[in-house]
Amino acid sequence: MTKKEFIVLFCSALLIAGLYHEVMFWLFRAWLNNPYYSHGLLLLPVGGVLVYLKRGEIYCAESNEWHILPLGVGLLFYLLGIILHQHVLLAFSLLPVLAGIALIFLGKGAKPLLFPICLIATAIPIPFLEWLTVTLQNISGTSVSGIFGLIGMPVSVAGNSIILAGNAYWIAPACSGVNRVMPLFSLTAILAYLYRGSAAARIFLFALVIPIALASNIFRLFITLLIGDWYGIEAAVGFFHNCSSIIFFFFALMLIFAFARIFKLSMKSQL
Questions:
Q1: pLDDT tops 90 at residue 115
Q2: CA-CA distance, 189 to 183, in Å (whole number)?
Q3: What number of helices (H) and strands (E) belong to the chain?
């Protein structure tokens, strides 16, 4: 990199820091305070590791006129975010801006940087999360009651509550499974990036995140209520409830690995 290119890159970094410092503070506050997006704090070092693993593939190549397109799209979204006062748009605009700058300076040699940049999208708070939470609450409650009905145990559903053996279990927003969806998106995206196989199989694996998270959450709720019926409601909402979220997150992750094997995806031998 020449001295002139280094100066231009340094000035670009200062400009981005000036434009996006409020957005970055907003993101870090969300990662620190919103349990649905706390995995965002881990994505920065993970992205650094992915770049390090691909460091041998990063090189300077001649840029072309198309490489400025992501930067233009990012700046357009930035203007829309300013006009509409939407932090979400501003946060998403940062990704094509960074990708565009990388492509302008490195050309095709910037390819290993693009995925770690795009990975941040899985940790940007989205506005329709509340709607998704309510939807998953309803689906989870209906599905669990249906399972109990199939095995001959009388159960009823009242709103977000399931009544089993005279005990009412409320499916709280945190029990909807949403808190596992976004981290699973991040992990599945990383696995799809590291796996070797067809692009269609990797995309389909990524598309399975919500069904798998929902299925694992329904299973978790079923086991929780079953323990409540066998050992009392205190046992169900006590220690098991507190640790079951982590257990069934790993259960969902195991399903992701299982489907990866079904799709004949394998880890790349050389990174």
A1: yes
A2: 10
A3: 11, 5
